Amino acid sequence: MESENYLNLQNLKITVFQAYLFWENVDKNLQNISLRLASGVREKTDLIVLPEMFNTGFTMKAQELAEEMGGKTMQWLKKTAIQYDCVITGTLIINENGKYFNRMIWMLPNGEYQFYDKHHLFGMGDEDKHYTLGTKQLIVELKGWKIRLAICYDLRFPVWLRNKNAEYDVLLLVASWPDKRSSHWRTLIHARAIENQSYVVAVNRVGHDGNQVYHSGHSMCIDPHGNTIYYKPEDEDLYTFSINYAELEKIRRQFPFLRDADDFKINS
User: Fold this and answer.
1) Are 148 and 157 in contact (CB under 8 A)?
2) Phi, psi (degrees; rounded to nearest 5) at 256
3) Catalytic residue numbers?
4) pLDDT recorded at residue 7
5) pTM of the model
6) Is-contact 46 231, C-beta < 8 A?
């Protein structure tokens, strides 16, 4: 049985930034995000979530735009986490011994971090030709909440994201998902929330990229019943909302179907 302390977890306050990204321009993106956070974050938050490749846009110029783990964007993430006294997360291109990763950084305000490398690389966009796939799943903890990290194309693969034994409470997905498949995005996010009995927080970008692919946002937070807590199409948006653990626990207690799920192992 879960402890009373676990059942009485505090609400988690999350700030999402559905950003317009300047194509392959690290300095301009970091400046824009900094300005928007400075003007828009007016209350204490626990977590700031940025889109996939928030500092460059979803580019295949891995070699030209990759940074080291001690590089400019990592330093910016550390500084921003300290400034707002919260965790900040999003993905950037990392060069590690000549291999390039689409890496999601989980940066704590004390300067420590964890990371998840994108597992499902988008072959139709040649991502697999420029990046190395990650092989490890990652669940992080924030204020007692268990949070599973995922990136964009991972959304299409429910086995990879399956919430075995209710091991996570929130599926956190950052993306650069095009408008022409936005109906898939909206449907799959609801499905992942319902089938995994977890909150899903999914943050996309807006605007055209350098390949003239249009992104219409549709960032959202969906609760374990499939109800919408936050949803924003089309426009750049910075928004803060809270999620409630007591509601999550109530849903799982009243309809405990996860206990009947199939057991399996993934050979990644």
Assistant:
1) no
2) -85, 60
3) 52, 118, 152
4) 56
5) 0.95
6) no
